[in-house]
Amino acid sequence: MMQVVRLQELLPKINKDETLKGRVLRKEIALSTKRSESSIQNLMYTAKHLSKDGMQAFQEEKLTPAAALYLAKQSEEDQKDLVQKEFFTVAAMRGYLEIKSVTQEISFKRPEKVEKRNPNLKPCVTGMSKSGACGSAAYCEAPYSCCKECKKECSLRCGWIREEIDDIPEKHQGPEPYVAVPAEKTESKRQVENPSDFPEERIRFTSSEHKKAYYDSLQKFYAPDPADKALCYCINLMQSTRSHVTEIFDFEQKCLKTECLKAGWQTSSSEKAIRMAFNLFSGEIPTVDYEDKVDNQLKEYQNYTVNELFYSSFAPYFWQAIQIRYPEYTK
User: Helix or strand or coil: residue 109?
Assistant: First the structure.
Protein backbone atom coordinates (compact mmCIF):
# COMPACT_ATOMS: atom_id res chain seq x y z
CA MET A 1 0.00 0.00 0.00
CA MET A 2 2.82 2.40 0.86
CA GLN A 3 4.44 1.58 -2.49
CA VAL A 4 1.22 2.63 -4.22
CA VAL A 5 1.09 5.85 -2.19
CA ARG A 6 4.69 6.66 -3.08
CA LEU A 7 4.14 5.94 -6.80
CA GLN A 8 1.09 8.19 -6.70
CA GLU A 9 3.44 11.04 -5.79
CA LEU A 10 6.41 10.11 -8.01
CA LEU A 11 4.91 9.04 -11.36
CA PRO A 12 3.61 12.52 -12.35
CA LYS A 13 7.10 13.92 -11.63
CA ILE A 14 8.93 11.11 -13.46
CA ASN A 15 6.70 11.50 -16.52
CA LYS A 16 6.84 15.27 -16.16
CA ASP A 17 3.10 15.32 -16.39
CA GLU A 18 1.35 17.01 -13.46
CA THR A 19 -2.03 16.23 -15.05
CA LEU A 20 -1.41 12.53 -14.58
CA LYS A 21 -4.16 11.58 -12.12
CA GLY A 22 -7.36 9.64 -11.68
CA ARG A 23 -7.86 6.45 -13.65
CA VAL A 24 -4.88 7.11 -15.94
CA LEU A 25 -2.61 7.33 -12.90
CA ARG A 26 -4.11 4.18 -11.41
CA LYS A 27 -3.44 2.37 -14.67
CA GLU A 28 0.20 3.45 -14.62
CA ILE A 29 0.60 2.33 -11.01
CA ALA A 30 -1.05 -1.01 -11.85
CA LEU A 31 1.45 -1.55 -14.69
CA SER A 32 4.37 -0.66 -12.43
CA THR A 33 3.27 -2.95 -9.58
CA LYS A 34 1.77 -5.71 -11.77
CA ARG A 35 -1.57 -5.50 -9.95
CA SER A 36 -5.12 -4.94 -11.19
CA GLU A 37 -6.58 -1.43 -11.30
CA SER A 38 -9.28 -2.40 -8.81
CA SER A 39 -6.61 -3.56 -6.31
CA ILE A 40 -4.76 -0.26 -6.73
CA GLN A 41 -7.99 1.69 -6.23
CA ASN A 42 -8.74 -0.23 -3.01
CA LEU A 43 -5.26 0.35 -1.63
CA MET A 44 -5.44 4.06 -2.42
CA TYR A 45 -8.84 4.32 -0.70
CA THR A 46 -7.56 2.45 2.36
CA ALA A 47 -4.50 4.70 2.64
CA LYS A 48 -6.66 7.81 2.47
CA HIS A 49 -9.53 6.84 4.80
CA LEU A 50 -8.13 4.37 7.33
CA SER A 51 -7.90 5.84 10.83
CA LYS A 52 -4.62 6.10 12.75
CA ASP A 53 -5.50 3.16 15.00
CA GLY A 54 -6.68 1.15 12.01
CA MET A 55 -3.43 1.88 10.14
CA GLN A 56 -1.40 0.69 13.10
CA ALA A 57 -3.40 -2.56 13.24
CA PHE A 58 -2.85 -2.98 9.48
CA GLN A 59 0.90 -2.45 9.85
CA GLU A 60 0.97 -5.03 12.66
CA GLU A 61 -0.75 -7.47 10.25
CA LYS A 62 -3.86 -7.77 12.42
CA LEU A 63 -5.93 -6.76 9.40
CA THR A 64 -5.98 -8.30 5.95
CA PRO A 65 -6.20 -5.89 2.99
CA ALA A 66 -9.91 -6.75 2.63
CA ALA A 67 -10.57 -6.11 6.34
CA ALA A 68 -8.60 -2.86 6.23
CA LEU A 69 -10.66 -1.69 3.25
CA TYR A 70 -13.93 -2.57 5.02
CA LEU A 71 -12.79 -0.72 8.13
CA ALA A 72 -11.75 2.32 6.08
CA LYS A 73 -15.30 2.58 4.72
CA GLN A 74 -16.77 3.08 8.21
CA SER A 75 -17.17 6.31 10.13
CA GLU A 76 -14.39 7.56 12.39
CA GLU A 77 -16.39 6.64 15.49
CA ASP A 78 -17.10 3.11 14.26
CA GLN A 79 -13.47 2.59 13.22
CA LYS A 80 -12.30 3.53 16.70
CA ASP A 81 -14.93 1.28 18.28
CA LEU A 82 -14.08 -1.73 16.09
CA VAL A 83 -10.31 -1.46 16.68
CA GLN A 84 -10.76 -1.05 20.45
CA LYS A 85 -12.96 -4.15 20.57
CA GLU A 86 -10.42 -5.97 18.36
CA PHE A 87 -12.82 -6.95 15.62
CA PHE A 88 -10.27 -7.58 12.87
CA THR A 89 -12.21 -9.71 10.39
CA VAL A 90 -14.86 -8.52 7.95
CA ALA A 91 -17.45 -10.95 9.38
CA ALA A 92 -16.88 -9.79 12.96
CA MET A 93 -16.99 -6.12 12.01
CA ARG A 94 -20.13 -6.52 9.91
CA GLY A 95 -21.89 -8.52 12.65
CA TYR A 96 -21.05 -5.97 15.33
CA LEU A 97 -22.19 -3.01 13.23
CA GLU A 98 -25.47 -4.73 12.33
CA ILE A 99 -26.23 -5.43 15.98
CA LYS A 100 -25.27 -1.88 16.93
CA SER A 101 -27.63 -0.52 14.29
CA VAL A 102 -30.54 -2.73 15.36
CA THR A 103 -30.15 -2.16 19.09
CA GLN A 104 -30.16 1.60 18.64
CA GLU A 105 -33.60 1.35 17.02
CA ILE A 106 -35.24 -1.10 19.43
CA SER A 107 -37.60 0.38 22.00
CA PHE A 108 -38.93 -1.98 24.62
CA LYS A 109 -41.83 0.23 25.52
CA ARG A 110 -44.50 0.03 22.88
CA PRO A 111 -45.99 3.32 21.75
CA GLU A 112 -49.36 4.19 23.12
CA LYS A 113 -52.13 2.92 20.87
CA VAL A 114 -54.37 5.53 19.33
CA GLU A 115 -57.80 4.13 19.87
CA LYS A 116 -61.17 5.29 18.68
CA ARG A 117 -63.25 5.94 21.74
CA ASN A 118 -66.61 7.33 22.60
CA PRO A 119 -65.99 10.76 24.15
CA ASN A 120 -68.99 10.25 26.46
CA LEU A 121 -67.72 7.31 28.50
CA LYS A 122 -70.28 5.87 30.89
CA PRO A 123 -69.69 4.15 34.23
CA CYS A 124 -70.16 0.39 34.41
CA VAL A 125 -73.67 -0.31 35.73
CA THR A 126 -72.79 -3.88 36.74
CA GLY A 127 -69.96 -2.90 39.05
CA MET A 128 -67.75 -5.59 37.50
CA SER A 129 -65.33 -3.38 35.55
CA LYS A 130 -62.05 -2.83 37.38
CA SER A 131 -61.59 0.55 35.71
CA GLY A 132 -65.12 1.60 36.65
CA ALA A 133 -65.90 2.46 33.00
CA CYS A 134 -68.03 0.56 30.52
CA GLY A 135 -65.62 -1.18 28.15
CA SER A 136 -68.33 -1.75 25.57
CA ALA A 137 -69.58 1.83 25.37
CA ALA A 138 -66.03 3.10 24.89
CA TYR A 139 -65.87 1.56 21.42
CA CYS A 140 -69.53 1.48 20.39
CA GLU A 141 -71.01 4.22 18.20
CA ALA A 142 -74.61 3.36 19.06
CA PRO A 143 -76.58 6.14 20.80
CA TYR A 144 -77.13 4.00 23.89
CA SER A 145 -75.23 4.48 27.14
CA CYS A 146 -75.43 0.77 27.99
CA CYS A 147 -75.81 -2.57 26.15
CA LYS A 148 -78.92 -3.12 28.28
CA GLU A 149 -80.76 -0.63 26.10
CA CYS A 150 -79.59 -2.19 22.82
CA LYS A 151 -81.07 -5.34 21.27
CA LYS A 152 -78.40 -5.76 18.60
CA GLU A 153 -76.00 -8.71 18.90
CA CYS A 154 -72.37 -7.69 18.36
CA SER A 155 -68.88 -8.57 19.51
CA LEU A 156 -68.76 -5.54 21.83
CA ARG A 157 -71.79 -6.59 23.86
CA CYS A 158 -71.24 -6.71 27.62
CA GLY A 159 -71.44 -10.31 28.79
CA TRP A 160 -72.53 -9.52 32.34
CA ILE A 161 -76.04 -8.51 31.21
CA ARG A 162 -76.63 -11.07 28.44
CA GLU A 163 -79.26 -13.06 30.31
CA GLU A 164 -81.32 -9.92 30.85
CA ILE A 165 -81.91 -9.57 27.09
CA ASP A 166 -84.66 -11.77 25.69
CA ASP A 167 -83.54 -12.14 22.10
CA ILE A 168 -79.89 -13.00 22.82
CA PRO A 169 -79.08 -16.74 22.83
CA GLU A 170 -78.15 -18.13 26.21
CA LYS A 171 -74.97 -19.71 24.85
CA HIS A 172 -71.94 -17.87 23.63
CA GLN A 173 -70.58 -18.76 20.19
CA GLY A 174 -67.42 -20.12 21.84
CA PRO A 175 -66.90 -23.50 23.49
CA GLU A 176 -68.66 -22.78 26.78
CA PRO A 177 -71.85 -20.96 27.90
CA TYR A 178 -71.74 -17.60 29.59
CA VAL A 179 -72.51 -17.36 33.27
CA ALA A 180 -73.96 -13.90 33.76
CA VAL A 181 -73.88 -12.61 37.33
CA PRO A 182 -76.33 -9.86 38.36
CA ALA A 183 -74.50 -6.75 39.52
CA GLU A 184 -76.14 -6.61 42.96
CA LYS A 185 -75.09 -10.20 43.78
CA THR A 186 -71.43 -10.02 42.74
CA GLU A 187 -68.43 -9.38 44.90
CA SER A 188 -66.21 -6.38 44.26
CA LYS A 189 -63.41 -8.62 43.01
CA ARG A 190 -63.95 -10.02 39.53
CA GLN A 191 -64.17 -13.76 39.09
CA VAL A 192 -61.76 -14.29 36.19
CA GLU A 193 -62.83 -17.86 35.51
CA ASN A 194 -65.30 -16.46 32.98
CA PRO A 195 -64.33 -12.81 32.36
CA SER A 196 -67.16 -11.44 30.30
CA ASP A 197 -65.45 -8.17 29.35
CA PHE A 198 -63.34 -10.43 27.12
CA PRO A 199 -65.63 -13.20 25.82
CA GLU A 200 -64.05 -16.63 25.67
CA GLU A 201 -62.51 -17.57 22.37
CA ARG A 202 -61.77 -20.90 20.73
CA ILE A 203 -58.27 -21.09 22.15
CA ARG A 204 -56.19 -24.13 23.00
CA PHE A 205 -54.80 -23.94 26.55
CA THR A 206 -52.26 -26.14 28.32
CA SER A 207 -54.48 -26.39 31.41
CA SER A 208 -57.37 -24.78 33.25
CA GLU A 209 -54.79 -22.77 35.22
CA HIS A 210 -53.36 -21.43 31.97
CA LYS A 211 -56.83 -20.44 30.79
CA LYS A 212 -57.70 -18.69 34.07
CA ALA A 213 -54.37 -16.84 34.21
CA TYR A 214 -54.73 -15.74 30.56
CA TYR A 215 -58.11 -14.08 31.15
CA ASP A 216 -56.91 -12.69 34.47
CA SER A 217 -53.98 -10.94 32.73
CA LEU A 218 -56.32 -9.50 30.09
CA GLN A 219 -58.13 -7.58 32.84
CA LYS A 220 -55.00 -5.43 33.23
CA PHE A 221 -55.44 -4.00 29.72
CA TYR A 222 -58.18 -1.48 29.06
CA ALA A 223 -58.91 -2.78 25.57
CA PRO A 224 -56.42 -5.54 24.70
CA ASP A 225 -55.41 -5.86 21.07
CA PRO A 226 -54.04 -9.08 19.45
CA ALA A 227 -50.47 -8.24 20.55
CA ASP A 228 -51.60 -7.87 24.18
CA LYS A 229 -53.54 -11.15 23.99
CA ALA A 230 -50.59 -13.05 22.52
CA LEU A 231 -48.37 -11.71 25.30
CA CYS A 232 -50.84 -12.77 28.03
CA TYR A 233 -51.18 -16.21 26.44
CA CYS A 234 -47.42 -16.87 26.32
CA ILE A 235 -46.38 -15.53 29.71
CA ASN A 236 -49.00 -17.72 31.41
CA LEU A 237 -48.19 -20.83 29.39
CA MET A 238 -46.53 -22.79 32.21
CA GLN A 239 -46.40 -22.75 36.00
CA SER A 240 -42.91 -21.26 36.18
CA THR A 241 -43.85 -18.22 34.07
CA ARG A 242 -47.23 -17.77 35.78
CA SER A 243 -45.43 -17.60 39.14
CA HIS A 244 -43.14 -14.81 37.90
CA VAL A 245 -45.44 -12.93 35.53
CA THR A 246 -44.76 -9.55 37.19
CA GLU A 247 -41.02 -10.09 36.63
CA ILE A 248 -41.67 -10.61 32.92
CA PHE A 249 -43.94 -7.68 32.09
CA ASP A 250 -44.75 -4.29 33.64
CA PHE A 251 -48.52 -4.03 33.32
CA GLU A 252 -48.60 -0.41 34.48
CA GLN A 253 -46.01 0.91 32.03
CA LYS A 254 -46.88 -1.72 29.39
CA CYS A 255 -43.24 -2.59 28.78
CA LEU A 256 -41.08 -5.72 28.74
CA LYS A 257 -38.69 -6.67 31.54
CA THR A 258 -35.94 -8.32 29.53
CA GLU A 259 -33.74 -8.86 32.59
CA CYS A 260 -36.03 -11.76 33.54
CA LEU A 261 -34.24 -13.90 30.93
CA LYS A 262 -31.24 -13.96 33.29
CA ALA A 263 -33.27 -15.07 36.33
CA GLY A 264 -32.28 -18.25 38.11
CA TRP A 265 -35.76 -19.79 37.85
CA GLN A 266 -35.65 -19.91 34.05
CA THR A 267 -35.72 -23.19 32.14
CA SER A 268 -35.19 -23.73 28.42
CA SER A 269 -38.96 -24.01 27.93
CA SER A 270 -39.79 -20.89 29.93
CA GLU A 271 -37.16 -18.90 28.03
CA LYS A 272 -38.72 -19.96 24.72
CA ALA A 273 -42.20 -18.95 25.92
CA ILE A 274 -40.98 -15.55 27.10
CA ARG A 275 -39.06 -14.86 23.90
CA MET A 276 -42.14 -15.76 21.88
CA ALA A 277 -44.18 -13.38 24.06
CA PHE A 278 -41.66 -10.56 23.68
CA ASN A 279 -41.45 -10.98 19.91
CA LEU A 280 -45.21 -11.11 19.33
CA PHE A 281 -45.83 -8.15 21.64
CA SER A 282 -43.13 -5.76 20.46
CA GLY A 283 -42.56 -6.89 16.86
CA GLU A 284 -38.85 -6.67 17.66
CA ILE A 285 -36.12 -8.95 19.00
CA PRO A 286 -35.42 -7.62 22.51
CA THR A 287 -32.12 -8.78 23.98
CA VAL A 288 -30.77 -8.76 27.51
CA ASP A 289 -27.50 -6.83 27.35
CA TYR A 290 -26.48 -4.34 24.70
CA GLU A 291 -23.07 -3.82 26.26
CA ASP A 292 -22.27 -7.52 26.35
CA LYS A 293 -19.82 -9.25 24.02
CA VAL A 294 -20.94 -9.38 20.42
CA ASP A 295 -20.86 -13.20 20.39
CA ASN A 296 -23.37 -13.30 23.24
CA GLN A 297 -25.55 -10.75 21.49
CA LEU A 298 -25.56 -12.78 18.27
CA LYS A 299 -26.43 -15.91 20.23
CA GLU A 300 -29.35 -14.10 21.87
CA TYR A 301 -30.69 -13.03 18.48
CA GLN A 302 -30.43 -16.62 17.24
CA ASN A 303 -32.63 -17.70 20.14
CA TYR A 304 -35.53 -15.88 18.44
CA THR A 305 -35.35 -17.93 15.25
CA VAL A 306 -38.14 -20.35 14.29
CA ASN A 307 -35.75 -23.27 14.58
CA GLU A 308 -34.91 -22.42 18.20
CA LEU A 309 -38.40 -21.48 19.41
CA PHE A 310 -40.33 -24.34 17.82
CA TYR A 311 -37.87 -27.06 18.80
CA SER A 312 -40.03 -27.67 21.85
CA SER A 313 -43.00 -29.68 23.10
CA PHE A 314 -44.79 -26.34 23.43
CA ALA A 315 -44.66 -25.75 19.66
CA PRO A 316 -48.46 -26.29 19.20
CA TYR A 317 -49.12 -23.62 21.80
CA PHE A 318 -46.63 -21.23 20.20
CA TRP A 319 -48.56 -21.66 16.95
CA GLN A 320 -51.76 -20.87 18.87
CA ALA A 321 -50.10 -17.67 20.11
CA ILE A 322 -49.28 -16.71 16.52
CA GLN A 323 -52.91 -17.31 15.56
CA ILE A 324 -54.01 -15.01 18.40
CA ARG A 325 -51.56 -12.32 17.28
CA TYR A 326 -52.39 -12.51 13.57
CA PRO A 327 -55.99 -13.79 13.33
CA GLU A 328 -56.51 -12.21 9.91
CA TYR A 329 -53.64 -14.22 8.37
CA THR A 330 -53.96 -17.57 10.18
CA LYS A 331 -57.57 -18.55 9.60
Answer: strand
